[in-house]
Write a sequence for this structure.
């Protein structure tokens, strides 16, 4: 008696795996173009449920396929196999499709799991994924780009955060970036410009010092943002973020406390590089801290 062919089910499950792979690639390509965060864990769960449902349907169709049903053939009594052989043969016929179906489901699940393995994107890819090329972005300096968090600190020294430097350099290449801050005197503004220049901000992507804006009040800060009408605004002041929520398409609130979102278009993160997705610890060692101190250049505090 001839055994049932095995190439057909293998081919069917290979086609299913290929279909799953192409389906997941199309979803990933679509989500990568979105300007906001995508919950890959939820997407993974939904995709897994869909794939399992399809696998069950294929398995059911396979079990009912007439190819694997052996027609009973009447044989003479002397040609009938022993009872133990019949029992063993029956078990093989029952276990075969079940084992194959389980293996096929496992193969499809492996395709899904492999697809959702973390992909190590480069910093330029991460920046472009969050801030689409050509979009206008406004960003506060204190607490985001600089280590200092208060305008008073700028009268003593200015420190560019090492962990955000690479991200900032990429943003100058792919975004229409504007940096802004409230200062107490003109000397503080000069210190900021010099620190950014020492960090190499003005030598990459055509970013110029004219795009670093200073004001003396928080209202002036808000006025800058509204006049520029950016696609993204990055700030540490929750009141300013809440005030601008009606006018700006997307905002990123930088805060160590991670407060609740004030609006659907407001995102929060502990730091800019964390929001982008850059490994903070590894990135912190990539660049030394760039410090520009007042006494080093003759400025009075």
């Amino acid at each position: 008696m001839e055994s049932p062919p095995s190439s057909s089910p293998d081919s069917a499950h290979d086609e299913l795996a290929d279909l799953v792979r192409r389906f997941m690639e199309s979803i990933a390509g679509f989500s990568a173009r979105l300007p906001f965060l995508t919950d890959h864990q939820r997407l993974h769960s939904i995709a897994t449920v869909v794939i399992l449902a399809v696998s069950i349907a294929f398995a059911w169709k396979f079990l009912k396929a007439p190819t694997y049903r052996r027609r009973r053939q009447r044989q003479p009594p002397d040609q009938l196999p022993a009872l133990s052989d019949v029992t063993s043969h029956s078990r093989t016929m029952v276990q075969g499709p079940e084992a194959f179906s389980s293996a096929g489901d496992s193969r499809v699940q492996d395709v899904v799991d492999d697809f959702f393995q973390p992909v190590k994107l480069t910093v330029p890819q991460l920046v472009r994924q969050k801030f689409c090329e050509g979009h206008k972005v406004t960003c506060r300096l204190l607490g985001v780009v600089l280590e200092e968090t208060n305008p008073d600190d700028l009268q003593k020294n200015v420190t560019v955060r090492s962990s955000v430097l690479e991200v900032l350099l990429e943003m100058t290449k792919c975004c229409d970036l504007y940096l802004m801050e409230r200062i107490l005197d003109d000397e503080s503004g000069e210190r900021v410009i010099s620190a950014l220049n020492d960090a190499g901000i003005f030598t990459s992507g055509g970013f110029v010092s004219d795009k670093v804006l200073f004001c003396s009040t928080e209202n002036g800060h808000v006025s800058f943002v509204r006049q520029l009408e950016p696609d993204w605004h990055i700030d540490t002041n929750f009141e300013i973020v809440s005030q601008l929520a009606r006018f700006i398409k997307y905002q990123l609130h930088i805060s160590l406390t991670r407060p609740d979102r004030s609006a659907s278009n407001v995102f929060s993160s502990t730091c800019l590089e964390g929001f982008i997705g850059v490994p903070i610890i590894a990135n912190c060692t990539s660049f030394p801290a760039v410090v520009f101190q007042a006494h080093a250049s003759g400025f009075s505090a």
In short: The mean pLDDT is 76. The first helix runs from residue 7 to 32.
